[in-house]
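B., you asked whether I could sanity-check this one before it goes into the benchmark set. Here's the sequence:
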Amino acid sequence: MRKFIIIIGIIFLGLSSLLAQNSKDQKTLYKTTQEAFNKEQFGLALPLLLKYDSIYHGDYVIKYQIGVCYLNTEFERTKAIPYIEFAMKSDRTAMPSEVYKDLAELYHLDYRIEESAKMYRSYQRLEPSEKKWVEKQLFTLETAKILLNDSLNIQIENIGPPVNTECSEISPYISADESMMYYQEKDSRSFFVAYYKNDKWYQKTKLDIPNLNNYKVVRFAGISPSGDQIFVQLGDSVNTDLYYGDNLLKTCNQLDRFNDHINSKYHESSVSISPDGSTLYFSSDRPGGFGGYDIYACRLDSNEHWGKAENLGPVVNSEADELQPFIHPSLGKLYFSSNGHKTMGGFDIFEAFFYNNQWQEVKNVGYPINTTFDEKGYSINAKGSAAYWSSSRNDQTLHYDVYKVFLKENIPLTLVKGKVLAGDPPKPIEAQIQVIDKATHTLLKYVYNPNPKTGNYLLIFPPGKDYDMVVRAEGYKPYIINIYLPNQTYFYENFQEIILSPIRVNSLGATIGEEIKVTNTFYDIYSQQKDSTISTSVDSATDKKYDQLLQLIEKLIITTDTLGLSKAAYVTEEIEATGNDPQMLEPEKDYDYLFGLIEEAIETTDSTALRVLDENSINHITYQLRYFYDIDQMNEQLPERYILNDTIFAINLLSDQLKQKQALIIENENHKIESEKLKLIKKRITECTIQFEKDKAEITPQYYERLSELAQLLNHNPNLYIRVTGFAQSKEDPNLAISRATEVRQYLADQNLDLHKTVTEANYNSASSLKSNQKVEIVIFESNKALYADGVFNMAVKLNPNYTIENNSNPKQASNSVNSNEFGSVDAQSSFYSVQIAAGSNLLGIKDPFFRKQKAIIVYSHNGLYKYCLGRFANHEAASQYKNELRKKGFGDAFVVQFINGKRVE
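And here's what the prediction gave me:
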């Protein structure tokens, strides 16, 4: 408040003149008015003076006093101009020098730049000692003149209700994705949060913060980029400190004080934290600065404590006040309010630029964002397309409102909005995310943990960086997911969905592994709009404009909460519980608008536009990995990743996929694996038993589902292999061990299992008479190299060394041809081609399941083994064609052999 003293003689003369003409009531009114004015009760005096002026319109003393009252209001100061002008014209010589100074300030507020300068010069002539101060004001006027001439062509709007009311709303802070806004009502202890959806703000909620009444000064001081953490300034007229707390929709259960490197015995106000949580910016009037309030920065040390505060230096700080810092997620720009740099008058918003590891430049953001009135606080979204601040906008509304400016700047950042889901079916899960800068091998300390109720998370990255995300969720292994960001010149949005799901063998009731699927969808809408080749590719003969489609897609991206970060789940539940705002009640959840946009997008585009969009968008990049548990290792050791002084154990999504692909490359001609240099890593994943009835080799129906499920599992996972081992007890025919194994293997082959992935064995122990040995054991392995290569006849069965067959000749002593009533024989005089399908050390009967549905079976003895062939052909070409048919049927190792004069040709 200012006090304006008029010469006693002027007041006395004016009073005498009026008293001579007025009635008793008018004298009483005048006396009451003057008493209020002299006591500086301007709010009480103003309406009385206005009433008196309506009666005695020409009295310059009353005019002057009305001007003084308006000067001392918060939002009506410029209304003083005509009243003071009238008084000066009536008797300029009677006016004190302060009147010239005050009228100069009023002209300045009213953008009457030249008149303001003239009054300041008149004041300087009357008060030569104020020359330095006047020169500073003239410099501010020149700055205002330049900024007015270079006015920005931008759109500014009052965001309206429910945020703005008849009260004054101050200190607005938005989350990086613009989905939430926190703010305070001036001259109250009430903090609010509002939510942004469908291009409008809705559903403001009052925050419940305990123990605020313990402090005389309570001010909202900032939020984290994700909006999950709030900052508050608490104290009294002597000292205020900064506190932080977690926001839980409507409640912040506890506020904790920052350490003494941030807080001091003086005033600390307004906080902004970098996206990685490593640097905190705040304003303080502690000694040792450049004057008034300065902006300082604190950084987290290796022990997760805030280190010593560092003044940002003379480029940012001036001899006056710098308040309400806001670090943009790009980290290259700091916004703040100052009355010490090149302002239009009072506090203006400034932008400081950081490069070459230091603050290099400070720039006024310009008119009409800044005015000749005070502008304090400025919060800009990560995209750089919109900013918010509180202003009276030249006292238009007679209170402070929150305003939004639509910026044309497009900041080259990538904003990752994602969701973590887990289970079958997938649902939100409590998870943790850490981010590693691959260039510096540092772990970014701030973790954007997903919301456990919605699974949503948000990450912000500058261009030209290569990051790894470490994702941890309870009940699953940790994974490393790479995020590569090119040196883009536009703002990118990446919509990422991470789904973790168990891999189960239902018939066994066992979880044998897990799967992670990561889907990324990039849209760079703005760069596409600048590409003229896109618009010319669309059929312009119709009304289906490509630009319109892009705009619709941008609306869809903003509107849908499938992959968004908004607290919509919390908000809608709160609406349901309280019954507030029936327009927002479930189940609609404003989906009608979203569905309307989808329908409009379909109607707006055609196949050409969709094709162009698909060709010019980085769209739906999906990574998928299946990880199987090793049942032989209770505490399986995951790959190590060293991050400076830390070690992370996690599965690398991309590198594991590449290793698997490399391991599966087989050189068929030489029957040799290319990736021989890789060390064999073999894991036993699961095992099961198929029981048989005594003296039988037929699979009972109860096992059909299990075998079908195992075959499907192997078919879907190229790095899985199976071992089938048959058993027979001592009271059974030893051949049943073989028959049971081949029966199971054949069933798997009938389920389209590639027989290269199997090996069949038999085990017979003449000393065992246990019923439990009437079985086939199945073991599934995971291997980074092919376990069973070409050339190894996996259909062959091997019994353990104790196995003997009564009345069976030793194959090593057998002749080169076998005559049997059950098999076709090799005629000593004939010459033909046949297709060999298997070899083994034991002679199988024609009714053996291995030969099921096969005809013209030939068996012969060769190199100590019984060998089995199918078909007789006059030439190699016919035999080769039959070989191909057999391979398709599951005999993957089949090959052509030739017999001449009853013997196989080597």
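One thing to flag: DSSP finds 18 helices and 44 strands in the chain. Otherwise nothing jumped out at me.
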